[in-house]
Amino acid sequence: MVGAAEILGVQLDLELLSIPVVAALIGYGTNWVAVRMLFFPLRFWGVRLDAVRWLAQFLPRRVQAVPGLIEGGIGWQGIIPARAAKMGSIAVDKGIAKLGSPREFYDCLDPQAMADHIIAEARGEIRELVERIVEREHPGLWRDVPPGLRERVFERVEAELPAIAAEITRDVGEHIDQLLDVKLMVIRRIEENPALANRIFLEVGSKELRFIVNSGLYFGFILGILTIPLYLAIDSWLVLPLAGVLVGYLTNWIALRLIFRPMYPRRVGPFTIQGLFMRRQPEVADVYAKVIADDVVTMANVSDELLTGPRSDRTRALVRDRLRPAVDRALGAARLPVRVAFGTREYESVRESLATEAINVTMAPLRDRSFGRRQSAAIRALLARRMRELPEPDFAELLRAAVEEDEWMLILLGGVLGFVAGCLQIAFVL
Description:
By secondary structure, the chain is mainly alpha-helical. The protein has helices at residues 4-39, 50-56, 61-64, 79-82, 84-99, 102-108, 111-137, 139-144, 147-174, 176-179, 182-192, 194-204, 206-233, 239-260, 281-295, 299-308, 312-331, 335-342, 344-363, 369-388, 392-403, 407-429, and strands spanning 45-48, 73-76, 266-268, 271-273. Helices cover 79% and strands 3% of the residues. A hairpin with a 2-residue loop joins strand 3 (266-268) and strand 4 (271-273). Helix 1 (4-39) crosses helix 14 (239-260), helix 5 (84-99) packs across helix 20 and helix 5 (84-99) runs antiparallel to helix 21.
């Protein structure tokens, strides 16, 4: 028969073996939850209370940074989407602005290809625009204009379109720094679509995020082994919950440090060690460039910003100034009889209306997303090349700056979840 001492010995061995196993699960689980809470949910999930909003104003500034708290929320929103404006600002300051200027991005989009696309898409609309405006301004006079003269006007307008398109795309390029604020454009796009902020960091840091989760298993197991002597030496049920706090806290802390440290390659005996993110710079450059070129600095987004952004009045004024003389050139020899037929004031009114309303007709084709995708390859190549050349500190900031101010929440969360898991472990061990 098996003696009682042997049974107790087996039971004690199982209890001790359970400590590193549960610690590994704690490490893995807390890191998995921490990573998920970086990105999800996209929108605030919870309740909002006036009492909480009142109380939040007296809390430390760091605590006020908890998503939704300053608005009275009790719940959670992913840290990245909750900081959409901040993420957009970081994406520009730490990445896009260091990789290229607005003029370089615009040149990559190929102004000549833009002009050709405008010509192809706007030709029919320009004819309709001319007829609609003249009929609206002077319906009787336009009907009295001989059909041959009207057709010559249409033909001259269409013949003038290539020169108009080339001049517009050239002028926009020459003044792009005054017309386009890349930072405001990126912030606006990311605020409108928080999932885009997630995509940038999920794709750029995919391997690092996976490392954070998996490392919790390894570091948790090691810390669990180190807990065994403490458990044997101290006869208290508090050992396991407190060890859980330590495991949950340290596994997050260690993983975040190993992603970026050491920043530069360092020889340790026969090995060369470097932060996981840092040694992936060439690979990350290609991924980052693809995301930015496909979804952020795109032809459609640039066009939208030029026509509807905070500086759109400058764009419209520039295009309108270019279109006014183009109307005169398009009329050619017919300009004088048309001006006489309409009267000087009425003619100027028609010309101004044409110049104003033709802005959308000539610029709208640039919003064509399929055309923009074809133009994105050059931007992608520029971004990837420049990113590979970034100094290590600047490269690290691409990912590090996104979570640096808020990583204390992830580490603290690991400690709290570790405490809960340690309390649950008591039921098995004791």
